[in-house]
Every structure is written in C-alpha cells, then in structure tokens.
Amino acid sequence: MKHFGLKRIQSGCIEGKLMMLCGALTAIPMLTACFYPETLSDLAAFAIPALSSLIAGAVVCLKNQPQDNEAPRPQRIKKGSFFVLFAWSYGVVIGALPFVLAGQLSWVQSLFESVSGWTTTGLSVMDIAQTSPLFLFHRGFMQYCGGLGFVMVMTLFIQNKQSMNLFQAEGHSDQLTPNLGRTVRVIVLMYTTFLIFGVAAYRIAGMSLFDGLIHAMCALSTGGFSTRVESIGYYNSPLIEFITIILMLIGTTNFAALLLLMRRQVRQFLAVSEVRFMGLLLAGAVPLTALVVFSAAYARLSDSFRIALFEVVSALSTSGFSTVGYVRWPQAAVLVLIVMMLIGGGVGSTAGGMKLTRVYLMLRAINNHLRNKNAPEGAVSLSFYTRPQGRTLIDQKLLADTSCFVFSYLLIYFTGTFLLMLTANCSLIEAMFDFASSLGTVGLSIGITGPLTPPLALIVEMAGMLLGRLEIFIVLIGIRTLFQQIKAAL
After folding, report:
1. Closest by Cα among 485, 418, 489 to 457
2. Rounded to whole angstroms, what are the CA distances from 35 to 42, 199, 210?
3. How many other C-beta atoms are found inside a 10 Å radius of the C-beta of residue 181?
4. What is d(CA 356, CA 387) in angstroms, rounded to the nearest whole number?
5. Long-range CB contacts (< 8 A, 24+ apart) of 195-203?
6. 109 SS3 class
7. Three-state SS for 209?
8. Is-contact 36 132, C-beta < 8 A?
9. Around Cβ 241, how many Cβ atoms within 10 Å?
C-alpha cells in the first residue's frame, strides 16, 4: 500500500508537485533563525503556509490520476501556459502569507512584495530598517528562485514528458544541451557558482556575510532587493559597486552565452549579436547620462561617470540596485533610464524588459527595409544574426513574432502608465518611470512606490510585473484557457 501511494505521487498531477515545491521553498528561510535567535517568534508565519502547502500538494497528487502527455501541440501549449499561470499565482500567494501572518504588511502590500520578489522586480513597500533578517532573507530567496522560474526549479527535481512543454511555456527559449535535465543542471550549476563567487567577493570588499548573500542572490537574479534603505549607495564603496555591476551583467546575459564563457570560447561569446548590442548601448548611454547629470547634479565629472555607469547598468540589466536618488537628476537623464528599462536584458537570462535581441532585430528590420527600398527590383537579400548556438536567419516569421511582442509590450506600457497616473495621482514622468520599472521587472523608483502607495496603484504595478516576467503572451494564453474551462464547465 505504501509503495502504491509513492507511485501515485511520482506520476500524479503536476499541480500537486508544484504546491509541495512552494511549501519547501517557503520553509527554507526558517533556517535563518539558527543564526538570528531573535527571529524565532516569526517562525510560525512561515511554518503554517509551508506545512499547509506540503500537505495540500501531497493530497492533490494522491487524488489525481496521471495526466495525458500525448495531447496535440496546441492543446499542450494551452495547458502549459495555464499551468505556468497557476504556478506563479500560487507561488505569489504562498510567498505573501508570511508577511500577513506576522502582521508585517496588509494583504495587498504582502501580495505586492511577493510579486516583486518572485518576478525579480525589487520594488518594495516595506520599511527595510525595521525588517527582521528572516524576512530580508525570504525576500532575497524569492528573487533568487524567481530568477530561474518555478518550472526550472521543478525540473531540477521532477522530470516527465510535460517538462519540456512547461519549460518553454515559462519563457525559457534556449536549451543548452540536447537533454532538458542536463540543461537545467548546467544552468543551476552556473547560477550557484556565480553566487558563491559573488558572496566571497562582497565579503572581501567589506560586506557582512548575510548582506553579501542577499545582495549576491538579488544581483544575479537581476532583482534589486537590498538589506539597506539606501541600497548599494549605503556602502559608498567603488569596489562593492564594481562587484555589483559584474554580477548584474552576468545575470542579464543569456545563459547560453554565459556557457560559452565558461568553456573559454571568448571569441564566440563576443560574436553574439545580443552581447555586442548590449556593449554598444552601454557605450552610448553611460557617457550621455554622465554628461547630462554633470553640473546639474554633481560637481565632479568622475563622480558623474561612476554614478551613471552603475545606474545605467542597473536599469538595462533590470536589476534595480541604486547608489543615488533621482530628485536632482535632469529629466533628460531620467528618460535615458526609462529607455534602458524598456529595452531590458538578454533573452534566456533572469532579466526583464523587451529584451536586447528583440530590439536589435527591430533595428535590423528597419535597416533592411531602408536598404531594400534602394535595391534593384527583384533583388533578394538574406539577413542573419548571431545567437550563442550560431548564425540564425532573420526570416519573416521571426520578425512578425518580434514586432507583435514589441507592439504589445509598448501598448501595455502606455496603458499602465495612464492607469498609474490615475491611481497614484502622480506626474507623467513619475508614472512612466515606475511603470517601466514594473513592466521591465527592474525595481528602480522615482519615489511613488513605497509604504504609502495606494492599493489600486500597487495592483496596477503588480499586473505590470507579472506581464513583464511571463512575457505577456504566456499570461494572455493562460487567462484565455482559464475562461474557456470556466465556460465549458457552465
């Protein structure tokens, strides 16, 4: 009988396994109490949702029959998108419960903090100065796991015929090896290796071990949660800023491109179009921002370049760490950061935004269109770009998919900006900045997102974070599938 029950759990529904995984992840922050005994009073706030989720997940697995994995591809896509939507919704609720049970935040604020954590955004409504290490670790750990995604973390432990469909449905575009399980192990190994080096580097630079762990987790996941109100600016250390920049760039780089570096294939890495485009953007945006803020905000040009380098990398990588506030910044410099946040990081990385490759492809499409206008009639030209896997043809299907995504992204951006202006009662530039930060899962704020932000404004930003992290179409397909199932049930 015991053996039969175990077999059912192994082959039961994927939703139950997800619930058990969320319970296990929620329990891990409780280990912090071993080093900070003063947090023992908050353990129940984590133990209750963790244990409840583990038990509920086991019950769901035992009561459900194995699922059909041989459905037609369109149906598998719908089911995969619906599961991803369920996974993130469930994870957000479980992640929010400790804040509610401990009386730290209201329900809406707790959901906001959880969404910001799992989506690796980094916007916060908590008073960090009054937050215990247990909750600081919980926030950072959510970002670290959220950078990989629920499905990837699940695939590390559980694999079946559905795994590849779910892996792709969550927005993971590149498979590093022919075997999915090995791909996930390679990614997690790289992620963990960089984390260890990041913590060690922070420790050498003077951070405490706890601060170093949180900042390394959040920099690699391009999240931006910090243990300090002033973020990285608290330390006023060029070395810590440099380490953070390196970690942010690692986090925003395609895992497949990082694998080329790990294999010492530097030439192939530098040939990747996305990597070269990122270098070009930084080479243009950093000096431009430094010159704009020079004199208007800072007395020395060297300070302007140091600050501009950190802030531009943070915006483009969608990390959200900062060293300064933007009250003294000219609006032209703020606009540069908004553009960087909208562009975002690399495809197949932990970063958000429209993604470097999509913007690069749209610029190439414009260039090809202008070139074809002047070409002889009937001339045919092929265009390629370089991915970590090699040269890839830029065909009409790729451009159509890219243009649809970019248009949808910008439509949601302007709609969200309008709604944020209404709900937060803020100016256009403030709404543009903070919603670009939400949709791009960045975490930088110009000042309107905080403990006093109205609940409706937080809901608008939460919607932006989820759409940005799950890349819009996954959410829309999942919602459509949900409505179809409700309609069929009625």
Report:
1. 418
2. 14, 17, 10
3. 12
4. 12
5. 195/144, 195/220, 198/243, 198/247, 201/243, 202/240, 202/243
6. helix
7. helix
8. yes
9. 21
**Alpha-carbon distance 121 to 256, whole Å?**
23
Residue 323's nearest CA partner among 338, 350, 340, 304 is 304
Check the CA dihedral 195-200-206-210 and report its sign.
positive
The reported pLDDT for the residue numbered 3 is 40
Nearest to 338 by CA among 412, 430, 203: 430
Classify 350 as helix, strand or coil. Answer: coil
**DSSP 8-state secondary structure symbol assigned to residue 297:** T
In whole numbers, what is the pLDDT of the chain averaged over residues? 87
Indicate the pairing of strand 384-387 with strand 390-393.
antiparallel
CA distance readout (Å), 236 to 204, 230, 303: 15, 10, 12
Q: Which phi and psi angles does 36 have, rounded to 5°? A: -130, 85
H/E stretch holding 83 reads helix 73-101
CA distance 109 to 213: 25
With H, G, I as helix, E, B as strand and everything else as coil, classify residue 298. Answer: strand
Nearest of 366, 367, 373, 363 to residue 343 by alpha carbon: 363
Residue 170: C-alpha distances to residues 91, 348, 406, 466 (Å): 14, 11, 18, 12
Between 150-157 and 73-101, two packed helices, what is the crossing angle to 10 degrees? Answer: 100
pLDDT in tens, 446-489: 889 999 999 999 999 999 999 988 878 777 777 777 777 777 77
DSSP for 352-396?
Answer: -SS-HHHHHHHHHHHHHHHHHHTSPTT-----EEEETTEEEE--H
Tell me, what's the pLDDT at 237? 95
| 3-state secondary structure at position 300 | coil
By C-alpha distance, which of 360, 364, 380, 363 is closest to 372?
Answer: 380
424 vs 80, 299, 341, 345, 435, CA distance in Å?
35, 34, 20, 28, 11
DSSP secondary structure code for residue 119 in this structure: T
Using alpha carbons only, give the angle 373, 379, 383 rounded to the nearest 5 degrees. 80
- Per the structure block, which two tokens stand in for 187? 């990614």
Instruction: Record the tokens describing residue 314, joined without a space.
Output: 């943070």
- Token duo for residue 160: 């079946």
For residue 294, the SS3 value is: strand
Q: In one letter, which amino acid is 44? A: A
With vertex at residue 264, the alpha carbon angle to CA 384 and CA 257, rounded to the nearest 5 degrees, is 40
- For residue 214, give both structure tokens: 């949180």
CA distance 240 to 258: 22
CA angle 64, 23, 26 (to 5 degrees): 160
Residue type, 276: R
Structure-token match 């649809």, residue found: 404
pLDDT tens per residue across span 26-50: 999 999 999 999 989 999 999 999 9
pLDDT band (50, 70, 90) for residue 182: confident
